[in-house]
Fold each of these.
Amino acid sequence: MFDLKDVLKLSKDGKYIVPDMSGKGMLPYVLSFDTHGGTLPVTVPAFPGQLTTGFIGPNLTDADTGMIVRHVTYSSPSTGEPFQCTVQLRDSNNRLYMNNPIHIKTWAGLMVGGTLQQQRGITPAFMFEPLVLESAHKVQLLIAGLDNAQETMRAYLHGAVAATKPGPQYAWITKFYRDMQARANGYVYPYYITTNTVPVLTSGQTNAQFDVKLGENVELFSAMAISDGDFEFSVTEARTGETLMNGKIAAAAGLGNANFPTIFKTPYRLPDGARLRFSFSDLSGSSNTIYFTLQGRKILVPFSKFNVYDREFMNAYPVPSLTREPVGVYE
Amino acid sequence: MISVPIFTKDKAGALYLNDAAIDVGGGVLAPQQIQNPLTVPAASSASQPGGATTVLESPTDSYQEILSLIANLDVTQNVNKRLLVEMVDYAHSQRALTNRPVPALHVFGTQKNPFFLDDEYTQSIFLNPQQILKFIFTNPLIGTDAVISFLAESTKIKNRAVESNRELMKQVKNLAFRTRQLLPFWFAPETNLDGSKIIPGVTLPANASRNLTFYNRRNDLTLILNTILAHPGNFSDATGDLRGIAGYEIFTPYDDQPLQNQPVAMDCGAGNPAFPYRMSTPLIIGPNESFTVTLSSYVNVSVDWFFTFHGLGLDSKHGDPGEWNTSGGYQSYPEPALLRSIE
């Protein structure tokens, strides 16, 4: 998101670097729960209680362009281990950003590298596809506690807002927002995928399978998991049998969390109608609850040549290149 | 960052090791006192802090691009939490890389997680042969000496390679051009801890708020701030772990617009050099501009807070840069093709 080109440029004679003050048109912004959701920290009831709160797009003076969200963090002021919960985002158009509630440690970054009285650091969870939160629009967050006691928490969305209305003098901001809003309104938005039910493996259980059917084209960038103990897993596209890995891999070696996710060097792309099959085997030797999350984005536009993946996914459509161009026609 | 391909081809397409690659490699710059860690003596009174000065000097036979800073500071020691440092870059007209002494804990990373200066958020430090980066340490704590070992990781570029390799010469010229105006910058508040004119920070009484004023007093420096670093001083509380023991609110220069809808807890929006908190987009502060940060305590005890911004400084005081050459001439007009990262 941040690019020096937006705030620096060369002078006309090429001898100096000069500030491009249009860069001041974009400001950092941190958004927490709508104050109607309660003064921070909010209290999340004990399992199976739920708290519904939300974020409202900021509305700065002279600007109503909303916010581009890139990072997420959370903390719990409670003592002991940071509490655990699941979260699910839903916007005012009833659009879900997760197919099911996901574990908060696979959505938001947590403080690292320090405890009481120590210097502490934070590695916010990065959203590969930014969330566009239009001014005064609300995104609802459903928080479900997993602990046996109520806990308090804070959560923040970190991003940027325009300090001024887009205009000719802020050409790059205008372009940036137009692009972002078009994406948000039309064809692409961040999306998280998890299993439809939370896998709870018995000691030593192998090959527990969980299927997830995808409604639209999806592009995935990272994988994360939070579990009681170690496990091994594989991911397969069930219709074609295409696998993401050539065998089961141990979660300890292959999965991070929101702070340090396992990033796919090349995005994992799946077409509309694909069916992901997750297979888990316990390695911990005791009951093992697994929250597995893939992060990416939904893409609502079709492929330019749908026959490419129809052929791949064995749909009923004929393959045009074979039916229309029989061998020998170009003699 | 200077980089040289390790392989090269001749006109016939045969593959060779690149001569220049031998002369460009990793380096470490340490102060002379590294054999015996630098001791910064204790303050004799609240108004007379202890001090010690040392330098990092590039060797006679090479240029150095400093990429990260590392120190062995124990973060649990009160003296280290209050140890301050100023950096002066003698390679560039003795310019300061801080607006005033800043906490050493906001400058140095750890061996495992150095504070990198070569990413898109900040700027590396480029030293010509035999030029120095000066570190001025201040210890405001009475009765306790501070002991610090530190070093800088760098890329070492031998003079002979720069003189003989045209491509490398272009890269060095470009880097010299950038670093002539761009510098890494640490920006501490004008506000001082209670009873001190030395330590930038604030004493937050229990459940109270205090303002920090950040004032860019230079009329030739634009700041592009994108990193927030903070840590609390020592405190005692019977409840044990206190996460998010304070929150901050940033307000824009001139119109005081808040850049958050609720205070941001420190453990969600402030980091350290090992794990710095990067803002999604920078806050740009022009010459002579100031802005306010309000800190709010969430706990029933008084806590000292140290809060620093880090980012890039754009120094516009230099005149015509003149020609750069390897025999002492300093700056150059850039090769246009090499400035793609800025243009």
Amino acid sequence: MWRTDRVLALALIVVSLFAALSNWLTSVSPQADSVRPSQVAIDAPDIALIQISGSISEGSSGGGFLQGGGSGSNKILKAIKQARDDKAKAILLQINSPGGTASASNAIYRELIRTRQNSDTKVVALLGDVAASGGYYVASAADHIVANADTLTGSIGVIIRTQNLSPLLEKVGVENGNFKSGQFKDILSPYRESTPGEQALLQGLVDESYQGFLEAIAEGRGMPIDAIKPYADGRVLSGKQALEAKLVDSLGNYFDAIETTKEIAQISADEPTIRSYPGSRFQERLSELLSATISQSIPGVQQAQQALQWNQIPLALWE
Amino acid sequence: MLDAFYRQLFRADETPPSSAVAALIAGLVVLVMTLNAGSSLQLPPSALSPFLVLFLLGGALGLFWFAAALFALTSLWGGTSHFFTLLRSTLVGLWPLIFSGVALSIQSVSLALGALFSLAVTIGVLFTLSRSLAVAQSINQWLALISILVVIALSGLAIFGLFLWPLMLLVGL
């Protein structure tokens, strides 16, 4: 039974820990990040800063309590819509992503294009260390792309990974079988070689998605598909090479991107108001803390989680 | 555990400090202090764990020397306990520090109220520390309080000397 003294002792511990934790979580909230911290915008910010980091996938957040970093498309979509509704003069996308799923990248791309077409909000993308494949897909929806000279970008293409473990299983005497309702129900099974019918089906999916990817870049960048195709064989480009290929518009860092954004969105303030979107919630900060603690305590756990996650997603814009 | 924690907090005179409760209080104090530091320095999640390790090390070292100084001084006043009993008592006496996070929270609402709460926490620490020291060493609580203040003052002087000596050597040689 719970006695009063035990409850009181537990309450003291919980209250003291909760207070300390919430102090810290509040202090590191991205909403505090601003060029002018004393003048955090109450109404429309000049620039809405949206970060896309890690693999892009469906979901409200890229990382749960036990998942590493990543960008959930729902969270990003919400951030874009919120910035548009707040009538931010510009959205600055900070992209540091090796890619993601085709559907999640496409969803973010479409929302950015909608923002460009249906509002006065300008979109500028700043490419970080890596903005490849799905990361570039998203960036191509921007009015202007700024990259670092050494940014790794490009990797335009679609991939479906397959595995055939049957020779190994044969060696150890394991036989696999299944009962299926249709000939393609166990497509991508790692326990047998894929059939010509399956290969044709999967290649069709890849080709369709690839064509969509090319058309999206062409639409976003205002370039003919033929001009993109020479660089769309999956190759990785440096920022400098991407500039020469007209896949990015300028080279620079964060502050250059701010200047470019000011210019494009016609922001006259010397120090524009920058607000991070979406606003951070207590649970998200707590999740980040746990993720960081776990990844520091158990080396390689993030990579293992990502590998597990990506094994379940067949159509990927990520290599 | 919760029973022992409660008794240690509110009926310390009747209860000798147990190692488990001392460890619990030490853990809580270090965790709260780390989060407070994280709040003041706006540390990202990735930097918090190294800070926790640093605070654990710093706390252990600081506590050892603080308890050693208290042990030496209170032994002069006729203290009778073993060093490790005094070490546990010192740890347990620091329990009001777990409310420093609450003080910071209040400070964000009202600076004056927060400062008042911080003062209350400081007085609380001095009271509980002197009480547990007095119980452990079987000395008067006022004598225990004077010992704590003397040790703090001596520590301050030692730190001052630590800075002054290199300066003396630098200028004098």
